[in-house]
Amino acid sequence: MVRILLVDDHAVVRRGIRAILEDQLHGATVAEAGSGDEALTALAQPFDAVVLDLSMPGRSGIDLLTEIKHRWSKLPVLIMSLHPEEHFAVRALRAGASGYLTKAAAPEALIDAVQKVTRGGKYISQAVAERMAADLGGRAPVPHERLSDREFEVMRGIAEGVSVSEIAARMHLSVKTVSTYRTRLLDKMNMTTNAELTRYAIQNGLV
């Protein structure tokens, strides 16, 4: 029996993914969580894997991933997201994810990914593998790849039009800390305004 925790804030999405897993993965039992807090509560029970969406209201998926790996280091986490893998997969893998899959993937790919990560393996596409190899080979990072995970989330919040106080609340940080992250990321991106950040994020598919 494989026990999977499915974390996504959209009930319809959870229902569809759960149906695929329970129908095509023999012996699978799937529990659901609609938020980061619900996921952490659910993880008081043992699971063999977590399937996690990156974009949920409140706490970011990367932040939740980091905490899960800190508290349950051996628990594999498969990211399943709407975001394009070229911008998010490497960051998620570096944060401890065992695999990355877009929601446009075929059901067979989801089953393959879950089976692979529950057996201790990694699930990445050929494109992501090539990008990681290029990084090892000294490829110059694009501007947003220089950002820390927290800086990256602040940038995305700004690009979405969220106020600093709202970003602080959903990241469980002080307004002063978020403002410091904003200053740092503007410096790293060689930008001076929120408008520049927003334009860059939209052009690069980060929001």
Question: Could you explain the architecture of this structure?
Answer:
The protein is an alpha/beta fold. The protein folds into two domains: 2-136, Response regulator (Rossmann fold); 143-203, Winged helix-like DNA-binding domain superfamily/Winged helix DNA-binding domain (Arc Repressor Mutant, subunit A), CATH 1.10.10. 53% of the residues lie in helices and 12% in strands. The protein is built from ten helices and five strands. It has helices at residues 11-24, 36-42, 61-71, 85-94, 107-118, 126-136, 149-159, 164-171, 175-189, 194-203, and strands at 2-7, 28-33, 49-52, 77-81, 99-102. Strands 2-1-3-4-5 form a five-stranded parallel sheet, with helices on both faces. Helix 7 (149-159) crosses helix 10 and helix 8 crosses helix 9 (175-189). The longest helix is centred in the C-terminal third of the chain and has 15 residues, at 175-189. It is globular and about 55 Å long. The N and C termini lie far apart (37 Å).
Quick synopsis:
By secondary structure, the protein is an alpha/beta fold.
Question: Topology, please?
Answer:
Blueprint: E1 2-7, H1 11-24, E2 28-33, H2 36-42, E3 49-52, H3 61-71, E4 77-81, H4 85-94, E5 99-102, H5 107-118, H6 126-136, H7 149-159, H8 164-171, H9 175-189, H10 194-203
Parallel strand pairs: 1-2, 1-3, 3-4, 4-5
